[in-house]
Amino acid sequence: MIRPTLPDGLVVFVKRDCATCVLVEPVLADLRGRGRKLTVYTQDDPTFPDSVESVDDTSLELSWHHDIETVPTVIVVDDGHETTRTVGWDREQWEALVGEDELGTDLPDWRPGCGSLSVDPDLATGLEVRFGGSVLRSRRVEIAGAEDDWEALHDRGWSDGLPVVPPTEERVLRMLQGTTRRPDEVMATVPPDLADCTVEKIAVNAVLAGCRPEYLPVVIAAVEAACTDEFNMHGLLATTMPTAPVLIVNGPIRNRIGMNAGINVLGQGNRANSTIGRALQLVIRNVGGGRPGEVDRATQGNPAKLGFCFPEDEEGSPWESLAVERGFSPEADTVTLFPGEGPRCVVDQLSRDPHDLTRSLAMNLRATTHPKLAMAFDAILVISPEHAARYRDAGWSKARFREELDQYLLMDADDMIRGAQGVAEGVPVDFAGSRIPKFRPDGLHIVHAGSGAGLFSMIIGGWVNGEVGSNCVTKEIPT
Amino acid sequence: MSLTVLDPTNETAPAVRPKVKRPAALDGLTVGLLDISKPRGDVFLNRLEDRLVELGVRVERFRKPTFAKPAPVDLRHEIATRCDVVIEALAD
Known about the structure:
The complex is a heterodimer. Chain A has helices spanning 19-33, 61-65, 91-98, 121-131, 149-155, 169-176, 199-209, 216-226, 233-238, 253-256, 271-286, 322-325, 354-365, 385-394, 398-408, and strands at residues 9-14, 38-42, 55-56, 70-71, 73-78, 81-87, 89-90, 110-111, 114-115, 140-143, 186-190, 195-198, 244-250, 309-311, 334-347, 377-383, 410-412, 435-437, 444-448, 456-464, 473-476.
C-alpha cells in the first residue's frame, strides 16, 4: 500500500481527548498567526482544535502510516520528506524544531503527551488490516450482509456443531500476536488429508474455537504432537472406539493463561480449558478433513471429542507432575497428548488408609476398557486432592504409590482368559496359569487435579497402545 | 455490510455450500430470473416470465449490476433465500 505523504511545513497530530493537545492549542494558533505553514491532523474530533483549522484523520490513516505513537507530535516536512519530529510539549524542543522564540510562554515548560489512537491496542490490528497490506494467505470468503454469520460458517462445514467465532482477518492477526512464529511456517502435516498446516491455519481455527491469543502456543504444540507418527492421529480418528486427543498442560503457562486445575477441572466454565482442545479438533476437521461419518468412524464417540484439555494442579500436588515424570523440567511448559475416552468417576469416600485407597483405585482401574482385557490399553488416573492427601499424610512418594498400585493391578490370568467367568471376551488362553499386569510398563499416567472437596478420582481409558495404536506424546511449548 | 472471513480449511476444496437438487417439477416453487445486464437479456427473460406465469409459477426478477463481474454476494444470498430455482440469461 502506498504511504500517503505529508504536506511541507509543520505538521502536528493531535486529539481532543489529550490534555496536552488542549494545552498547546494557543501555541498552534500563535504559529499560524506568525504565518507559519501549519497542518494540524486531528484523530478524534474533527472540530478540534477550535481555534485552528484542522484536517480530519479520524480514519487514522495518516497517523498509522507515519508511525505516530504520541500526541501531540510535531513533524517538520521539507520537500515531502520528514526531517525531524518531537512529541509532547517541551518549549525548548518546540522552539528549536520550528525555529521560533517565545512559544507558549504562559504554559508550563514541559508536559508529556498522550498515546496516539493509532497505537490503541483495541484499534491497532484493525488499522493493520486496513492500511498494512496483508501478510495472510488464506482464501477470503465473503458472507452476505443479510446472512447470519454463524449459519453461514456452519453451512460451509467449518463447525463441530457448536457456534464458532467468525475468523476475520483482524481476529486472526490478533491471534497471531500470541506467537513469535511466522504465519507461513508449516508446523505439521495433518491427517487424514495429509495437508500441510501453517501457523496461520492454526490461528484461523483457534479463532473459530474461541481461543485467546495467549493460548495459541499451546494449540500449536498440540497440533505438532498430534501429527507425530507416535501419536498416530489418523488411526485415532479413524477408529470405531470413542477416543480422541486428551490434552494435559503442565508448567507455568497453565497459570499465565488462566487455566483451571481446580474445581470442575474436567468440566465447563474456563475458556482456556474449553477452547484449546477444541481448536486442535477443528484443525483436524478443517485442515485435515477429518469429519465424523467420513474418516472418523466412531461407533458412539464421546462428548470430550469436542475438545478435552485440562492442566495439572502442580502447586497442590504431593508428587512430581506428569511432565516431570516424563522427563521434563518443572519449569518447562508442556502439553501431553493422550489418546483417550471421556472420564469416569471412582467413588471412594471411606478409605482413610493409603493401602485401602490404593486397593480401591486398583479395583476400578482393572475395569478400564474391560475387566478381562489387559496391557493393550493405557489409562490416566486423575487423582483428586482429597485422595492424594491420604498419600501425602502417609509420606508416600509417587514411586511408592506406583509400586503398591502395581501389586494390586497384577491379576490371575485364569479369571481373564476368553470364556472365563462365562464371558467370551478376554485375554488369549495362552496366558492361562500366569499373572498379568493390567497395564504395560509406563501405561498408567497419574495427574493431580480437582477441587479440595470430594473423595472422588477420575479414570480416562485409552485407545489401543503401541505400534498398532497410539502412544502418549509430550511436547514442550516454546515461549 | 458483508463480512469477510478467512478459510479455515486446507483449501483443496471450494469454499461453497452444496447445490440443492434440481426439482422434478415447478409446482409451488418460486423461480428467480436473473438478468446479468447483457443487452436483450431482458427480452429473453420477459418471454420466460410470461410462459412461467401462464403455468402458474411464481416468478421473481433480479439483475446483476454488470455482466463483467460475479454477482455480489448479497444478491446471491437474496436469490438463494427467496427462490427455489434460478434461470440466468447469459448472453445477448
